[in-house]
């Protein structure tokens, strides 16, 4: 009986070894096949990027060299070296990235719930990628009063001083009841991910360029997307805003013209009532493709060139073939626009630049002129 039992154990072990050997051979075969494909097509092959985990794609899988990070006693996490870091579970402090200026850091959210006064602060790096692991649900919530670090008021749930990228096929909900959801003082790119945003100020506030290449964005905020240059190439974007849906305004010393450019994707903007604009470009506006649906009293406001070169644009239920420039119900010349020949140093005679006549009497105003309202014509 013992010999038979030993033989059975031995056979079981042999079978296990054979299966493991076969599995490794299959993985190596797949790797070589991939290498052949990449070599034939001229692409770069990186063996470290191939995932052997069943059912997980190589693009969004958690790499084997990623480091699982646990919060300190005060709930904080500090990342000082280049690499991939996995965050899971509840984190009640600040996740700080303070690496070398040339470091590339990946933060993988794998079922993470980060809630604090300053949930994520990217202080220094070359670029930081926030990857949403496949099939996971993650939350980042800014609560309480803003804190200040090195004279920086961290007025966003994710506050970055460097380039920031969102990627991965998981889900992320970002909430800031007092400030911005995401703020970048450099560039911001959305490559993928299912991202839901609720913010008191801007959904995404970017100093330089904001680019959306894919993913799903659902934003409820005062302003949805704001940057010096906003470029939408793809993705599904839904914005509900109380100020501007998309705003391009000059914030950068390195970019001379603010611009909104839409090349593809599906974009739906719903504006609140009042002085609000669906797309506000304090510069140029180009729509070259995609499907854009705007429900607003003032769908477009631009100061420079505006071109509708392609795509489908629907305003308040009707498809349009030109981009009107409306403010206060008028067309042509948006908010604050002046005639092309306007010369501030050659004003008409009479009151100018806030000056009033010597005999001006605020208690003896013309009939119908009350509290700053113009007389009815």
Q: What gap, in angstroms, lies between the N and C termini?
A: 111 Å
- Low-confidence spans: pLDDT under 50, at least 5 residues? 1-19, 21-59, 328-357, 365-377
How many distinct domains? 2
Shape, principal axes of CA atoms: elongated
Strand content: 35-45%
Describe the structure.
The protein folds into two domains: about 15-50; about 65-330. About 10% of the residues lie in helices and about 45% in strands. The chain has one helix and 32 strands. It has one helix at about 1-40, and strands spanning about 65-70, 75-80, 85-90, 95-100, 105-115, 120-125, 125-130, 135-140, 150, 150-155, 155-160, 165-170, 170-175, 180-185, 190, 195-200, 200-205, 210, 215-225, 230, 235-250, 260, 265-270, 275-280, 285, 290-295, 300, 305-310, 310-315, 320, 325, 330. The strands form three sheets. The protein has a 28-stranded mixed beta sheet that branches. Strands 9-10 form a two-stranded antiparallel sheet. It starts with a helix and ends in a 46-residue tail after the last strand.
In short:
The protein is mainly β and 377 residues long. The chain has one helix at 2-41, and strands at residues 67-69, 77-79, 83-91, 95-98, 104-116, 120-124, 127-132, 137-142, 148-149, 152-153, 156-160, 163-168, 171-176, 180-184, 188-190, 194-199, 202-206, 209-212, 216-227, 229-232, 236-248, 258-262, 266-271, 277-281, 283-287, 291-295, 300-302, 306-308, 312-315, 318-319, 326-327, 330-331.
């Amino acid at each position: 009986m013992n010999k038979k039992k030993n033989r059975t154990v031995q056979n079981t072990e042999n079978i296990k070894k054979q299966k493991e050997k076969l599995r490794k051979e299959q993985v190596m075969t797949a790797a070589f096949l991939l290498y052949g494909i990449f070599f034939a097509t001229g692409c770069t092959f990186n063996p470290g990027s191939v995932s052997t985990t069943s059912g997980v794609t190589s693009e969004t899988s958690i790499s084997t060299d990623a480091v699982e990070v646990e919060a300190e006693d005060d709930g904080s996490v500090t990342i000082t070296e280049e690499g991939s870091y996995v965050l899971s579970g509840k984190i009640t402090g600040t996740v700080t990235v303070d690496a070398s200026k040339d470091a590339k850091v990946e933060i993988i959210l794998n079922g993470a719930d980060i809630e604090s006064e300053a949930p994520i602060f990217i202080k220094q790096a070359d670029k930081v990628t926030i990857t949403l692991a496949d099939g996971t649900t993650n939350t980042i919530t800014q609560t309480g009063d803003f804190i200040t670090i090195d004279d920086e008021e961290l007025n966003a749930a994710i506050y970055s001083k460097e380039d920031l990228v969102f990627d991965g096929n998981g889900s992320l909900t970002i909430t800031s009841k007092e400030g911005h959801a995401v703020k970048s003082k450099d560039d911001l790119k959305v490559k993928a991910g299912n991202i839901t945003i609720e913010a008191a100020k801007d959904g995404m506030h970017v100093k330089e360029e904001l680019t959306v290449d894919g993913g799903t964005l659902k934003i409820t905020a005062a302003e949805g997307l704001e940057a010096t240059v906003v470029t939408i190439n793809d993705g599904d974007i839904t914005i509900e805003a109380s100020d501007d849906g998309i705003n391009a305004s000059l914030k950068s010393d390195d970019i001379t013209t603010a611009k909104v450019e839409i090349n593809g994707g599906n974009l739906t903007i719903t504006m609140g009532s009042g002085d609000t604009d669906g797309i506000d470009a304090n510069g140029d506006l180009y729509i070259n493709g995609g499907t854009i649906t705007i429900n607003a009293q003032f769908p477009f406001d631009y100061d420079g060139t505006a071109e509708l070169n392609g795509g489908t644009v629907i305003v308040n239920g009707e498809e349009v073939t030109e981009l009107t420039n409306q403010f206060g119900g008028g067309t042509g010349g948006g908010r604050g626009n002046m005639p092309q020949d306007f010369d501030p140093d050659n004003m008409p005679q009479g009151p100018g630049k806030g000056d009033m006549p010597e005999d001006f009497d605020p208690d003896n105003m013309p009939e119908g002129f009350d509290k700053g309202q113009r007389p009815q014509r």
